[in-house]
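> agent: user asked for a holo structure of the chain below bound to magnesium ion. Plan: (1) validate sequence alphabet, (2) canonicalize SMILES, (3) run complex prediction with ligand conditioning, (4) return tokens. Step 1... ok. Step 2... ok. Step 3 dispatched.
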Amino acid sequence: MLQVNQLNKTYQTGNNIYPVLKNLSFEIHKGEFVAVMGPSGSGKTTLLNCISRFIPHDSGSILLNGRDISNLNEEQLSRLRNQQLGFVFQDFMLLDGLTVFENICLPQVIAKKPIAQMEATVKKLCSLFGIQKIMEKYPAEISGGERQRTAVARALMNHPYIILADEPTGNLDSKSCKAVINAFLQAKKQMGATVFMVTHDSYAASFCDRVIVLKDGAIHQELTRTSARRQFMDELLDVLRELGGEDDDNE
Ligand SMILES: Nc1ncnc2c1ncn2[C@@H]1O[C@H](COP(=O)(O)OP(=O)(O)O)[C@@H](O)[C@H]1O
Ligand SMILES: [Mg+2]
């Protein structure tokens, strides 16, 4: 589904060049729920931004469903972001002037799909994520967890190859965090969705199939969940403690 091969990225400030991603290679399979963890500054957001092509990388390749997305033109990039990638951000990024229903419709409005077809899909997603009762409300009238579930529904609207989420539970209390993780798990189970999530919350990551741990822009360790969730969470906490990075919600 997603293949990242020997990805390198540097940032330049003045005369200094900082390597931020160093020869990263990994693969995400269809239907997998994968987290990226690592201390603050280890390159997690940069990695997501390279995959979504918001920033260019220096070398290496990124393949989405077998296609190299490194050299797309602007028009191809817009189509990629609208139809093949789904985004969930830490601060929801919903439009305040639109209802939950309308926010979820947005990707299909952009893709110029017929309204009737949208309505059925939105209703299905809302009932899947337990937000059908708030479809006519505005973002200011609903809780953080509901906002983020709305954002997950919106990300799924065009059946993207993969959902990219940057700290989707970062602004949420633990109950809302669980509701959002459940939305990802439902999307995976019911729709075969593939989810790639940056988080520094071991609780959120413990629900994933696999966790890639970054340290200084390189893969420090990859952990596959083979045991019960609680045990997996302990394993994650051990690795993060060893790294000296934060392992809680406060960055
Ligand atoms: N636009 C930029 N210009 C220069 N340095 C940057 C820029 N964005 C991020 N960095 C640096 O790159 C490193 C990785 O940042 P980031 O990917 O945001 O890490 P993370 O998301 O893991 O906290 C940090 O040291 C950060 O200061
Ligand atoms: Mg970040």
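> agent: step 4 complete. Summary for user: The chain has one domain: 2-243. Residues 146 and 213 are 29 Å apart (CA to CA).
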